[in-house]
Amino acid sequence: MSQVLHQAYLSLGSNENPKHYLKIAIAALKNTFSEVQLSPIYRTPAVGFDGPDFLNAAARICTDWDVLKLDAWLHALEDENNRRRDVPRFSSRTLDIDIIFFDDLVMSGPGNLCIPRPELKHPFVLKPLADIAPDFHDPLSGKTLALLWSEHPDFMNGMVEEEIY
Fold this sequence. Notes:
- By secondary structure, the protein is an alpha+beta fold.
- Helices cover 27% and strands 25% of the residues.
- The protein has 4 helices and 8 strands.
- Strands 1, 2, 3, 4, 5 and 8 form a 6-stranded antiparallel sheet that branches.
- Strand 6 and strand 7 form a beta hairpin.
- The mean pLDDT is 90.
């Protein structure tokens, strides 16, 4: 009997020693999942608070894990990398990894788990996802990520790519 492989689309971000922490996160993804596709990495300003710029990226992974197991693993990865949860939600962080899409699932779960994530509205989430999965359909709007990005108010502003390797 073969296992079902799910497609999960993740948003990765860091603004505390971001090159260091994103390298760790990317290595952990590649060491854990057989198939990982990464977007370019973008430098973007902090949203919702004054702080250093973030480095943001997206990843598509294939996994036979369910969404709750993946979410727990991502939280553990954040915690292992000094993610503080005793500070305001909108504050600097070493590592922030969210599941934006999990197949075509629409759900709310424990903690702040919400799929698709409402952060999709932010260019630092949408643009990297559109880079790696332009034809993926958002299960809420039915629109492709490429179309959602082309309709975004920041579409023409461009985003600055950052090299971390």
